[in-house]
Design a protein that fits this description.
Largest interface: A-B, 31 and 30 residues
CATH class of the largest domain in chain B: Alpha Beta
Order of helices and strands of chain B: EHEHEEEHHHHHHEEEEEEEEEHHH
Radius of gyration of chain B: 19 Å
Low-confidence stretches of chain A: none
Number of helices of chain A: 5
Distance between the termini of chain A: 54 Å
Structural class of chain A: alpha+beta
Bound molecules: flavin-adenine dinucleotide, FE2/S2 (inorganic) cluster
CATH topology of the largest domain in chain B: Uridine Diphospho-n-acetylenolpyruvylglucosamine Reductase, domain 3
CATH architecture of the largest domain in chain B: 2-Layer Sandwich
Mean pLDDT of chain A: 96
Strand content of chain B: 25-35%
CATH class of the largest domain in chain A: Alpha Beta
Helix content of chain A: 25-40%
Number of strands of chain B: 14
Oligomer: heterodimer
Low-confidence stretches of chain B: none
Strand content of chain A: 5-15%
Number of strands of chain A: 5
Shape of chain B: globular
Largest sheet of chain A: 5 strands, mixed
Number of helices of chain B: 11
Mean pLDDT of chain B: 97
Chain lengths: ~160, ~290
């Protein structure tokens, strides 16, 4: 079946079987391998991308379900001006170790900060509750999200110095 | 994991969808958010021959007050109910539940209709809707009918939605007088299904006497359970400690949880008892 999508701003058509999962379309047919597959059971969030601006787990959607919709993956975060503020915040705050969870985590954060530009620590932790990270222990991710939030609001930037707790 | 092959249609009207459902018979399945169905298809627990995607049918997604009811369109996403001002003002129970259902990404897709139509006692909306005394609108080729939530869950993954029918809306009576409602579930980790969950909805008269009570239990019975004896134990009382203790004791006796990775039968009964007490107390606070 032929579907039409906009991937990171580019309109395209793709031929898929109805049973093709969205994550397989993105990674295998469209070669956007920034979107990862972790658990394949809608638990870890590594496959998170945006569908019409809303975060979703692409391992639990059929490609045919996004016919006519706009998809944004981590590849779509980079702008002509360089890193997206969320990418910059993750880099500066050591919010990744192996990086496997990072694309999905950041795509989730895009929607989180759009709905709630200045979230509290609790709101951040609930906001990323569908994304697992096995490396960082989350503290630096929370810190990075605070940093990105400040940067995107034009507020004073928090320190990126490591905290020893 | 990839589902086995199937045909896919995405009709743009309800009529068209009903026609297809009737023509295809038990080979067809409705696809709403897909967040229960697709995992089952990936595991090959479900292998429908034809999916009828109802996401392109306009008019099935809304939350509105109308004729003494809060009516929720079947395709309303969890996130839409979570963010609805009407729901928040009168039914904080929906916010209690939404926060504990899966995670934000899943709530962006999962629908309220799908959560009920799946017929799974582990889902959270069934108990909430039982507490709120909801009715479900089921539409077939001959028209629509309203079914009480108490007659909706017929067995494991079985509901009153018959072959060729679509769940189109859910409505709950708007609270009158002093009303309070609340929900909580114990979960092992964020996003997990309930070890046990309890939904409570109570109405008081001006003297503080309970005039109606609804109590629903999640995941401690083969079907979502209405805790009838517990409700009766509250009605006519001032909901003092004694009434609360009796209601909680009945709930723990009347459910039939099975032992699994989430805990033993005895443990789950204790969770039900503790949560029933807490949720009645919280609903009472909200009513006052
Ligand atoms: C990781 C994860 C965690 C989850 N945790 C929870 C949780 O804690 N609590 C909870 O309550 N749920 C949980 N869920 C389930 C989630 O809320 C589902 O989205 C929901 O149960 C089903 O809604 P859906 O719209 O996705 O339905 P679908 O998956 O599309 O459909 C489910 C079933 O209902 C039928 N159906 C759907 N809509 C209709 C309709 N309108 N008319 C007739 N039949 C219909 C389908 O044919 C199918 O058999 C979780 C899901 C995931 C993936
Ligand atoms: S791969 Fe999709 S949630 Fe883990
Ligand atoms: S950085 Fe390794 S899983 Fe998150």
């Amino acid at each position: 079946m032929e579907i039409k999508i906009t991937l990171n701003g580019t309109e395209m058509t793709a031929e898929v079987e109805p049973r093709t999962l969205l994550v397989h379309l993105i990674r295998e047919k469209l070669s956007s391998t920034g979107t990862h597959i972790g658990c394949d059971t809608s638990s870890c969030g590594a496959c998170t991308l945006l569908i019409d601006g809303k975060s979703a787990k692409s391992c639990t959607l059929l490609a045919v379900q996004v016919n006519g919709k706009a998809i944004t993956t981590v590849e779509g975060l980079l702008t002509v001006d360089g890193l997206h503020p969320i990418q910059e915040a993750f880099k500066l705050n050591h919010a990744l170790h192996c990086g496997f969870c990072t694309p999905g985590m950041m795509m989730r954060v895009v929607e989180l900060l759009e709905k709630n530009p200045d979230p509290s620590e609790e709101e951040i932790r609930w906001g990323i509750s569908g994304n697992l990270c096995r490396c960082t222990g989350y503290n630096n991710i929370v810190k990075a999200i605070k940093y990105a939030s400040a940067k995107m609001r034009g507020a004073e930037l928090p320190s990126t110095e490591p905290e020893f707790v | 994991m990839i589902p086995s092959s199937f045909e896919y249609s995405a009709p743009s009207t309800l009529d068209e969808a009903l026609k297809m459902l009737n023509a295809l018979g038990d080979e067809a399945k409705i696809l709403a958010g897909g967040h229960s169905l697709i995992p089952m298809m990936k595991l090959r627990f479900a292998e429908p021959g034809h999916l009828i995607d109802i996401n392109n049918i306009p008019g099935l997604s809304y939350v509105k007050e109308e004729g003494g009811y809060l009516t929720i369109g079947a395709m309303t996403r969890e996130v839409e109910l979570e963010e609805s001002d009407i729901a928040a003002a009168k039914f904080p129970i929906f916010l209690d539940a939404a926060k504990l259902i899966a995670d934000p990404q899943v709530r962006n897709w999962g629908t309220i209709g799908g959560n009920l139509a799946h017929g799974d006692a582990a889902n959270d909306h069934p108990a909430v809707m039982i507490a709120l005394d909801a009715e479900v609108e089921i539409t077939g080729q001959d028209g629509a009918r309203w079914v009480s939530i108490n007659e909706f869950f017929m067995g494991f993954y079985m509901t009153a939605v018959q072959e060729g029918e679509i769940l189109t809306a859910i409505r709950v009576p708007l609270p009158t007088g002093k009303n309070g409602n609340s929900y909580h579930k114990n979960e092992r980790k964020v996003g997990d299904y309930a070890t046990a969950g309890v939904a409570v909805n109570i109405t008081l008269d001006d003297n503080g006497t309970c005039t109606s009570a609804g109590i629903g239990l999640t995941n401690v019975n083969p079907t979502p359970l209405k805790a009838v004896r517990s409700e009766q134990a509250l009605i006519g009382t001032k909901i003092d400690d004694e009434a609360i203790n009796i209601a909680a004791q009945y709930a723990s006796e009347d459910c039939s949880p099975s032992e699994d990775l989430r805990g033993s039968e005895d443990y789950k009964r204790r969770v039900v008892k503790a949560l029933t007490k807490r949720m009645i107390t919280k609903a009472l606070e909200r009513a006052n």
